[in-house]
Amino acid sequence: MTETDKLSDFKDWISPIIVKELRQGMRTRLFTAAFIVLQGFMVLFVMIGFAEGGGSNAGTSGFFWFLISITLLLVMPLRGFAALSSEIRLNTMDLIALTRMSSWRIATGKWAALVSQTILIAVGVLPYVVLRYFFGGVNPINELFFLGVILIVSCVLSAAMVGLSAFPSFLVRALIAIGASIAAISMSAGLGGVTTETIEFDNPQFRWAIFAFLLGAAFLTYYFLAMGATRIATEADNYSTLKRLVSLLIVGITLCLPLIPSIDPSPCYVIAGILITFLALDALTETPSGVRSLHLPFNQKGLIGYAMQFLLTPGWFSGVFYILCLGLMHTIAGMNYGPPEFTWNVDQAVTVGVAFTGTLLFPLLIIHLFFTEPRNLFATYFFVQSAVAAIGFCLLAMQDSFPALMWAGSPIPFVNFLMAIEDQNNTYDSMLLVLALITLIVTVLVCIWRGNPLIRQINMFRGDYLAKTRPSPSGNSDE
Q: Are 240 and 231 in contact (CB under 8 A)?
């Protein structure tokens, strides 16, 4: 090997999965086409700007950010749509596992390679951002700031695509991917009109918003990658415990932010609810692990560890109690503050909180009563929850014409949730709360009934551990 070949190759300290994905990804037609087409449009944009004597008007500025948004928020993240599923489909995951790389390194390596290509495209746009400044009428600091925002959102979307690619259901992955991409592009659609304005970087609320944005982006990136790693990992690997502990911390921070006087509590309450909904989609669809070594660290911590197994170990059964814990935190926060458009009191806050928690768990009640061991729990949960949501919104639309239908569907937690929010006069709080509690209790009892084999397994592991560590009559512990 010549000295030139050594210099042109990747260094040994770079992860092999990153090298593999970069070599394959940068040779694909999609990456090449996206890069060339974006550069072509940017050159065309510059020529139009020179012809018109300025490129900062609303039309050209909106077109400029639209092109960047489409490329960075749609094209590049969607390249990770089949990052892990293709390995599973082609039966190459076992071959990759022979390299002794963990599932976490595999997921993060694919994401890092995708983000590296995205950064390359973003760097290629920087000269045109500078040219817009010479055209006049734009603030280069603002332009760079919003380009950075789009790049960070693109990294989060790439992590989401990589994480979701581990799920076998193509339709579910496609629906979530389309929804996330549309939401991200819509968020950046107005950038062309605000980049000429002055951003108040010294504003305390703006600083808190930036902090929340960066914290949320870091958490979502980690969680999506951990979710993908969990789905491709062996039964003995445990990524759920750390994932759930970090999630509890983030939800707690979000709900405690309103303690700072300058922060509006209502967005924190709503964002925490959206976050808990996303966490439920993952936690309630995990496959339980029956590996003894995974439960050993919990058994070594006594009664506290025994209780934590029902909250932090992988599987839908522990996910039920995990979501109950998150729902309790959300309900307590709602008792102190809530959306200002409602006449909020403690009774309504508790009703909304119980109905919201019941809504997240309700698909498990339907699955465990009417489905026998679904092969794809994630897809089944997603479609059952979507059907329940459709029923709820249909009943809400017909509420004025047929109010009895809404009450007939009130035992469904999501319908109960909508009725509790719409009940601004707090007329039916007690009735709705009783219905929500009954449905929630029934759901938890059914989950405990179906999870009884898992409870016996946990007790067996704990009993075996105690038997091995119990001191012998001679005073020595059994080996």
A: no
The residues, ordered by sequence, that sit 6+ positions from 317 with a Cβ below 8 Å of its Cβ are 288, 310, 447, 451, 454, 455
Q: What is the mean pLDDT of the chain?
A: 81
Backbone angles phi, psi at 78, to 5 degrees: -65, -15
DSSP 306: H
Q: Check: CB of residue 379 under 8 Å from CB of residue 370.
A: no
- How many angstroms separate the CA atoms of 378 and 250, rounded? 23
Tell me the C-alpha distance between 106 and 336, whole Å: 43
Q: Count Cβ atoms within 10 A of the Cβ of residue 11 and give its class: 0-12 exposed, 13-18 middle, 19 or more buried.
A: exposed
Largest CA distance in the chain: 95
Which of helix, strand or coil describes residue 55? coil
The whole-angstrom distance between residue 178's C-alpha and the CA centroid of its chain comes to 14
pLDDT on residue 38: 83
Instruction: Give me the pLDDT at residue 406, please.
Output: 80
Cross-strand partners of 477: 471
Contacts by residues 402-405 (CB-CB < 8 Å, ≥ 24 positions apart): none
DSSP H helices, 313-376, are 316-336, 346-370
Euclidean distance between CA atoms 381 and 172, whole angstroms: 10
137 contacts 196 by C-beta, under 8 angstroms: yes
Task: Answer yes or no: are the C-beta atoms of 64 and 132 closer than 8 Å.
Answer: yes
Whole-Å CA distances, 325 to 247, 252, 319, 349, 446: 11, 11, 10, 16, 18
The contacts of residue 360 (CB under 8 Å, 6+ apart) are 276, 277, 280, 284, 323, 327
3-state secondary structure of 51: helix
Nearest Cα residue to 118 out of 73, 76, 161: 76
The span from the CA of 424 to the CA of 420, in Å, is 8
Cβ contact 23:9 at 8 Å: no
**Rounded CA separation 267/270 (Å):** 5
8 Å CB contact between 322 and 288 = no
pLDDT in tens, 176-228: 777 777 776 666 655 544 554 556 667 777 777 788 888 889 999 999 999 98
Q: What is the C-alpha separation between 368 and 382, in angstroms, rounded?
A: 14
Structure tokens of 130?
């500078």
Distance CA 235, CA 176 (A): 26
